[in-house]
Specification:
This protein is mainly α. The longest helix is centred in the N-terminal third of the chain and has 36 residues. The N and C termini lie far apart (70 Å).
């Protein structure tokens, strides 16, 4: 019995050691991404986006070492889920209340309609279901974070995930540059401009960059609106989890309730009830971004550009049309009701 226990412990230690090269490689790439993010002209790209780009470049130019494969897979799944849980500490119920009932309704309507529109359009364009759902999630909810969170239940190919991240990054960046030119032309107040940006631009960093160019009021409200939209990630993942369970049968889907979603919701509740001091809060936010960057670097290390190119132009067209839809639809709702 003792011998069996020792053998089990030894095997467990060996498995853990096998994870080190891959996790370390992804962490180093994420660290380089943070360094690049601090450079002038590069700061417009988030460390998460830079991480996946570095991972893709490393894999396709040098090749991901075989001994790193296990750790890369670990970072892409376990580290990712833990980071998504920590995202809950960036949201509070009070922030949602600050947006107001009309604002929340507009955000929810734009999110839901865009997701459904993108799924329908993807079917019409002949884009695979998994890739369509990833582009729909990234466009309608919160960019790269939503893509990788939704992939935990859609289980798409890593190349599809990278493609979806690329789509939401490109079109979200275009919106980040164009939106600040439009408030006066569209007769938007700082509050309505912030709401529009938060309801339709993909990444949190892109929303911040766009809205603060119209002043502090627009920036703060845009950020809160965007975080309200991020909070809707949990129910979307749950709904998609149930849908996946029904498609595959309960025997293949152990549970339609991804455990990390429960952790995400729990930390939103904690953050709503307990005032976390500014210094620890800032450290947690930085750690969350770093862990998400590690996961995306790992994703890049599993991404083959040749397979990406084989996807063709239709998914890119889907991403572009989906981005235009959420922008126009949310603006229409704001003009009508806000």
């Amino acid at each position: 019995m003792t011998t069996v226990t020792h053998d089990h412990d030894r095997t467990s230690r060996l498995e853990k050691h096998a994870l080190i090269p891959g996790v370390a490689l992804a962490a180093v790439l994420a660290g380089i991404a943070f360094g690049l993010h601090a450079l002038p002209g590069v700061g417009m790209l988030s460390p998460m986006i830079l991480s996946i780009l570095l991972g893709i470049a490393f894999h396709n130019l040098l090749g991901t070492p075989a001994r790193a494969k296990a750790g890369v897979a670990f970072a892409l799944r376990r580290v990712l889920r833990f980071a998504i849980i920590l995202l809950g500490l960036q949201l509070t119920a009070q922030q949602v209340v600050a947006v107001g009932g009309t604002g929340v309704a507009i955000i929810a309507a734009a999110l839901t309609t865009t997701f459904l529109f993108t799924r329908l359009l993807g079917r019409l364009l002949g884009v695979e279901r998994g890739l369509t759902e990833l582009i729909a999630a990234g466009t309608s909810i919160c960019g790269a974070s939503a893509v990788i969170a939704v992939n935990t239940v859609t289980d798409a190919k890593d190349e599809d995930v990278a493609y979806a991240v690329a789509c939401v990054t490109v079109f979200g960046s275009i919106a980040m540059f164009l939106y600040p030119l439009l408030p006066a032309l569209l007769h938007l107040s700082p509050r309505t401009f912030g709401l529009w940006s938060g309801a339709s631009i993909h990444e949190i960093a892109q929303v911040v960059a766009a809205t603060f160019q119209d002043g502090s009021s627009a920036g703060k409200f845009g950020t809160i609106a965007k975080l309200t939209r991020v909070s809707m990630l949990a129910p979307v993942v749950l709904v998609l989890g149930f849908a996946a369970a029904r498609r595959h049968g309960r025997s293949r889907a152990k549970t339609p309730m991804p455990w990390f979603v429960l952790g995400f919701v729990a930390l939103v509740v904690v953050n709503s009830l307990i005032a976390i001091p500014a210094a620890p809060k800032a450290a947690i936010v930085a750690m969350t971004t770093f862990l998400l960057s590690v996961a995306l670097a790992a994703m890049g290390l599993e991404t083959d550009l040749n397979k990406l190119a084989a996807r063709g132009i239709r998914p890119a067209a889907l991403g572009a049309l989906s981005s235009l839809f959420i922008s126009g639809f949310s603006l229409g709702l704001i003009k009508l009701f806000a």
